[in-house]
Amino acid sequence: MIEEKRIVLRNADLIDPEKIEDYLQAGGYQGLEKARSMSRPDLIAEIKKSNLRGRGGAAFNCGLKWSFVPADAPVSYVVCNFDEGEPGTYKDRIIVQKDPQSLLEGMAICGHAVNSKKGYIYCRGEYPYVVDLLNRAIDQARNKGVLGDFDIEVRMGGGAYVCGEETALIESIEGHRGEPRFKPPFPGVAGLWAQPTVVNNVETFANLPSIVINGAEWFAAIGAPNYPGTKVLTLTGDVANRVSIEVPTTATLREVIYDFGGGIKDGKRFKAVQVGGTSGGFIPESLLDTPIDFDSMRGIGATLGTGAVFVMDETRDIVDITTRIAKFFEHESCGKCNPCREGTFRAHEIMKKVNQGRASVQDIENLTILSQVMEKACLCGLGQAAPAPILTTLKHFYPEYQARLQLN
Amino acid sequence: MSTIQDIVLAFRDKPGGIIEAYHAVQKEYNYLPEETITVAASTFGVSEAQAYGVATFYSYLSVEKRGKYIIRMCESAPCHVAGAEALIKAFEAALGIVAGETTADGKFTLELTECVGQCQATPVITINNVPYVNMSPEQVPAVLALCQ
Predict the structure, then answer these.
(1) What ipTM describes this predicted complex?
(2) Taking the model in full, what pTM does it have?
């Protein structure tokens, strides 16, 4: 049986998250000290070599992202994306609630690499109690002087899912409606207040102290070679144990669901799992031996995404759940681009028709074409990913659709 | 209670601080009275239309008057399969309003929401941002009784 491997949660339940002294005693801020003894190019090269890839969903090489910030930029920003809005996801909350200093240290390491003096944590509005915890943690770090001349400020979001998209998040910090920007320019060149900006997820930052201390090779040897390290997963739905775990990225979905989740609750049978949040693909039993790493999941038309693992038992109605998800995207579309604004509305409309038994084969064809258009034409990841649950359920669970169709 | 003017002005020097100012007003008033928009517009140097546009973009901000207790019920997929719909109906029946409304005595507002990040114990509601997990329709009267 595969075992948990804790890197970002290494201090969880072992230290008091309210006490920086505990964190320091556990070796905290030694990574930052070591990072500051390195030259900026060396530090970026080391992170690049570790092949740490973003833990927010897009899995971009972290060091490579940092290298886009011009070395001579007079002002630059470090932004932490703590807007985890993917339904079924609460891993960043767990990481911060168990060990907030780890995040602050990770951000300060990034700050050194890109010569930034200011970091922002954009925390979702659903977590005001975590904002308070973070502010206390920042105060303690300031008083101890561990952050040096790097300062961190927390900004609270307002319950907009689209703000998880990095340019929408930047717009929101600037005090605007959270609508994504056209790219390029990418944030590394012109981000917050048009200055070079690195945006990384909580889990990505929390990996950094250990990588700096133990070295790139140590990290690169853990888990899958193309997506090394661990992933924090949150299990929800019809698993016996709805827990959060941190496992090497070589773990398979079956191991996650059966070894850690304890299998399906109430002795029922497995039907489907949706990984990566509500924008992830649905996966049938036949693909459960796929490892969770980003590329393997991509290979089966799914996504690792945020690491949410939403399990459905044999009694669940796939069409009804997909209809509910279509409603989510209609609600959360920001309205800036037409393919998403209109597309999510129409997709929900057709899904409702299917769910109520009023749809025809032609509706399914239209839904498929609409989904394909949205994947290509939507401005940001929200609209591009919105059709994934529809397309994957059509692919793997078509009989459930078929049973609802009108024969005309 | 601080005046809206005082609350908003405290954020004057914070770059992009309009959303922070809105959060602060809402913390005291439970919603954004109309004056908030005009004060924020002049404080942050944007038009009233832009200030209103920001206030109405975010689902956590409300320009409509709301009750003392704001009950938000998650209806995202993990809560949906755990029985969110029955829970919503139970709250609607107990309060005599439908989602989106406020009780006549101004005590409760019922809102639907998407994921609140407590999916380890679904279905979930929040009352004034405090999560209540593993909810069932039977628990509704007891939870409402906590709001005094």
Answers:
(1) 0.96
(2) 0.97
